[in-house]
Amino acid sequence: MRITMIGTGYVGLVSGVCFSDFGHDVICVDKDPRKIEMLNDGKVPIYEPGLDALMAKNVESGRLSFTTDLASAVDGADAVFIAVGTPTRRGDGHADLTYVMAAAEEVAHAMTGYGVIVTKSTVPVGTNRKVKQVVQKARPDLEFDVASNPEFLREGAAIDDFMRPDRVVVGVQSPRAAEVMDEIYRPLFLRDFPVVTTDLESAEMIKYAANAFLATKITFINEIAALCEKVGADVKEVSKGIGMDGRIGNKFLHAGPGYGGSCFPKDTSALARIGQDHAVPQSIVEAVIRVNDGVKHRMIEKLRDLCDGSFNGKVVTVLGVTFKPNTDDMRDAPSLTIVPALVGGGAKVRVVDPQGHREGEALLPGVNWMEDPYKAAQNADLVVILTEWNEFRALDLAKVAKKMATPRMADLRNIYNRRDAKRAGFEAYEGVGR
Question: In this protein, which residues make up the domain named UDP-glucose/GDP-mannose dehydrogenase C-terminal (predicted)?
Answer without folding.
Answer: 317-418
